[in-house]
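Bumping with the actual sequence this time:
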Amino acid sequence: MRARPRTIQITEQSPDLEPIRVAIYTAGIMEATHVPRERLAEFFKMQQACKPSVYILFGKRNEDKAYIGQTGNQAGHRLQHHGWNRSDWHHALVLTSRVMDAFNAAHARYLENYCMEQANAAGRYPRGNQKNGDAGHVGQAMEWDCQVFFDEVRELAKALGFPVFHAIKEDGVVRGHASGRQALEFGRQNSEEESDMVPLAVKSEQQSA
């Protein structure tokens, strides 16, 4: 079939240098929320904090390490727990669904494990996890759904400046992730490899329908 353009929209929750940012495909299901650690209190008030999620914790911009986890309950509670018990992360990427009831605890468990596998295959960040995830027992239909969800969050994460599921390229792309305004520019520059028309905070790419 003919390739169709898709649009990623990035919304900043405030005009600060390091705001909370939410990336979505305008016609997609999943959303990715970048939460700087100092913005946790603001994140707890957002609807994304009340959803099941897969989340990824990153260190400082010059520290290439990613911890991947999941929660079948409220993402905000899990990040609050890590805020108290882990001092080695500075950025969180929270992956949730925009569609009510489309993403539950079983999806989160499977997607966590799949994200770990894909992050390992990309080899961009050493994993901060001591163990692999448990995908649980899901039917084939749910497995297919989760792979569709992953296809979305893989690109949403990259657009926010966290290319954790993209392998390091031989042409010298910098290892690690960007931060704040640099992340927007990082996502824009990477998008230009896939599309000729790229507004600052909106990415279009060609994908097969």
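The tokens above came from a reply further down the thread. The CA atoms of residues 158 and 187 lie 6 Å apart.
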